[in-house]
Amino acid sequence: MRAAVFVEKGHIELREVRRPEPGLGEALLKLSLTTICGTDVHILKGEYPVRPGLVVGHEPVGRIEALGPGVAGFERGDRVIVGAITPCGQCRACLSGDGAQCSHGGERFESLGGWRFGNTIDGCQADYVVVPNAQANLARIPESLADEDVLLCPDIMSTGFSAVERGRVRIGDAVAVFAQGPIGLCATAGARLAGAALVIGIDSVPARLAQAKRMGADVVLDFRQQDVAAEIRRLTGGGVDVAIEALGQQETFENCLRAVRPGGVVSSLGVYSGHLQVPLDAFAAGLGDHTIVTTLCPGGKERMRRLMSVVAAGRAPFRELVTHSFRLAEIEAAYELFGHQRDGVMKVAIRP
Ligand SMILES: [Zn+2]
Ligand SMILES: [Zn+2]
User: Fold this and answer.
1) pTM
2) C-alpha to C-alpha distance for 219 and 73, rounded to whole angstroms
3) Residues in the chain with pLDDT < 50?
4) 35 C-alpha vs ligand 1 centroid, how far in Å?
């Protein structure tokens, strides 16, 4: 089968590899659609280390090709998605409600342990992928939805919404979302869905600010044109209830602290590298009753079912975020376009 393989820093290549077989509790999916994540670009650049030879990709849409022993309630041919994070459903982390930090059957907690596809096991930018702990992770796609409708559920929607949920957004809140890439746009939609009365989207790309309005932002601010934290404090009488960081950089994290009210929540979903510093003036010297929370994309079949129900209910135009389409054979070109953010790209659909 064909698969996008991490070869070395700066080099992901489409190669012929052996088609895997599903083992105990596993399923083999034939992919019909997948995409490239910003995290895959970090892997390509060597900023997030994975082992050479690994098949990358963690956002699968497809059909069940074969089931290993011990998977009940599913059949060959079922159309499914699987979350980017594949909790086992049985370890200490999973049973503590922290499936993203799953130790896949182990006894010890393991940071990021639930993220396995394209990280610690072969991923889904390929013709086929093996799904671990299939019973907990296969999620049937409703008849009424096309593959393209649910492409963002495995990671982008789940992560964006999770920042809202972890930030405990309440009805009537003011929420600012820093960076309106695909995940930030889903956080914007999520804040609106959670009942925020004022949603502020921040970016500098006009098309992204326009999309933010379509996803539910009431106000959009361009950080190149003004001091956005000062403007947010002015609009809200001293700061938002919840500030969401959706980029993973010092500047946006700091802006969140400067834009949140005393007693408010900074909810961070970005992936950081190097050091992250807390400026004490923005942090009220540690006396501002602030809460800082982080999130990793929640997975599992029930999470996927809920997200697909949001898509089916037409709550926001999620499908508009998929701006480009490539064949799997063209995936290296797709990395080139997406990695350099050319041609107004938001998300790319990859079709095996
Ligand atoms: Zn991702
Ligand atoms: Zn687990």
Assistant:
1) 0.97
2) 46
3) none
4) 9
